Amino acid sequence: xxxxxxxxxxxxxxxxxxxxxxxxxxxxxxxxxxxxxxxxxxxxxxxxxxxxxxxxxxxxxxxxxxxxxxxxxxxxxxxxxxxxxxxxxxxxxxxxxxxxxxxxxxxxxxxxxxxxxxxxxxxxxxxxxxxxxxxxxxxxxxxxxxxxxxxxxxxxxxxxxxxxxxxxxxxxxxxxxxxxxxxxxxxxxxxxxxxxxxxxxxxx
Amino acid sequence: xxxxxxxxxxxxxxxxxxxxxxxxxxxxxxxxxxxxxxxxxxxxxxxxxxxxxxxxxxxxxxxxxxxxxxxxxxxxxxxxxxxxxxxxxxxxxxxxxxxxxxxxxxxxxxxxxxxxxxxxxxxxxxxxxxxxxxxxxxxxxxxxxxxxxxxxxxxxxxxxxxxxxxxxxxxxxxxxxxxxxxxxxxxxxxxxxxxxxxxxxxxx
Lengths: 204, 204
Known about the structure:
The structure is a homodimer.
Chain A: E1 4-11, E2 15-17, H1 36-39, H2 42-47, H3 57-68, E3 69-75, H4 76-83, E4 95-99, E5 107-108, E6 114-118, H5 122-133, E7 137-142, H6 144-152, E8 158-164, E9 172-173, E10 185-193, E11 196-203
Parallel strand pairs in A: 1-7, 1-8, 3-4, 3-7, 4-6
Antiparallel strand pairs in A: 2-9, 5-6, 8-11, 10-11
C-alpha cells in the first residue's frame, strides 16, 4: 500500500539547513554536515553515479528508502536550490511533483526523474503522485514549509528523522509551527550509528 | 571525577516547556507530556515520597542520574516556577545553587536539599557546586537559558536528551542560539523505549 512519508536529516538543534541557503549554497552554511552519514554509503554513491562505498545498516536504510519511493513532492524553493546542482541523472529516479505558482513544462531528466510543476496546490500534487507511485510510497522531499503543510492537514502516515550529532545554530527549522501540537504520533523504531540516529514515527 | 552535565526532556520539535509557563503552570501548556515516561518510575515516585512504581531500563537511567548528582545549578526562572510546587522534601536531595540578581538567605528544605542564591554569576555558582559535589556530578538543572549559557562558555562535559515522541508547537526551545554552531560533540549512547529515547552526548 502506498504511504505518504517524509524523511529528513536534522541537527540536534532542529535545523534541516543552515543560514544563507540558495541555489549557490543548497543546504545553507554548514548544512552538508547534517548528512555526513550518507556520503560514504554505497547506495548513495550509486545514485550519484559513483563506484564503491560502504554497505552497512545505514546503507540498508538508504537503499530501502530509495526502493520504496514511487514519487516525490517538493516545494519550489527546494527545487530552485537543487536545479543547478543535481547531476544530469538526478538521484530521485521517479516522478517529482514541484509545488509552484509558476507554470512550466515538465523537465525530463535521465534515469527516470521527471519534474512536473503543479500550480493547483498540494491536493493536486498528491493525486498525481499517487497515480504515479502505484503501491510504492509518496515521499514529501521538503523543504520544511512543504513538510509542515502536509503534516498540518493530516496527510502524513509516517516519517523518519535522521538525527545528526551537530548544532547548526540558525537556518531552517524542520518543526516550527504551533499547530503541530495537535498531531499525535508514536515511535516505531530507533536505529543508531555513530554519525546518525534514525528515528521513525507513525502518525496516529 | 566530577563532570558538569545536564539532562533534560525535550519534545521532537525541540521544546522543554510549553507556552504560558509560570509559577502556576510550571512546565507551560502541555509541558508535562514531555515527561510522561518518568511519572510511572519507582525511583521518580520514591523521590516524591510515593510508594510503588515500575523498575525497568528507564528507572535504572533515572536512579543512576539521581545517584550521580552531587549538586545542582539552576536559573532563577526555573526556581521561581518550582518554588511553590516542590514538596517539602524536594526531589534534589543535594545542594542547589540558584543564579539570581536578588540576594536571599539559603532556603533549607528537608531531605538534603538546600537552595543557595548566587548573585555573582555562573563561575561562582560552579565553584560552590564543585566544592559541594565532591566526586559526583554537577547538574545544570535548567532552564534553557542557563543550559545555553553553560554550553556557550564550554563548561559542559556531557549531556543527555530525553526525547519525547510529541510536538509542543511553541514555548521554550532548548537549543536556540546561533553560537551553539561552534560546539563539537559526539554521541555516546542511545537507549530507546516507547515513551522516550535517551540520547547521550559528550562534548569534544
